Amino acid sequence: METMLGFAGVVVITMLALFVALALQTAFLHLTIRLMQPATADRRPMRVAVAHGTRLVARAFQGQR
Asked: Which stretch of DSSP H or E encloses residue 30?
């Protein structure tokens, strides 16, 4: 009987440790993603401004005709 209680205690403690480890891993993953976000938040190509400027020039030439 004591052996079964000991085994049940080990199982319960192991499951508790597993859930604590999973919660810590998830928290660290979210923290890592949040810390990396400013470095990758604004990744627009540089040609967008050139294309927009080209469109403005084309409109200006169309308006002169």
From this structure: helix 2-40
- For the chain, first and last CA: distance in Å? 99
Burial 37-62 (b: 16+ CB within 10 A, else e): eeeeeeeeeeeeeeeeeeeeeeeeee
CA distances from 14 to 2, 7, 9, 28, 39 (A): 18, 10, 8, 21, 38
- Tens of pLDDT, residues 11-28: 999 999 999 999 999 999
At 40-54, the pLDDT tens digits run 656 665 555 566 677
Single-letter amino acid, residue 48: V
Query: What residue spans define the domains of the chain?
Result: 1-35
Joined together, the tokens standing for residue 24 give 């810590």
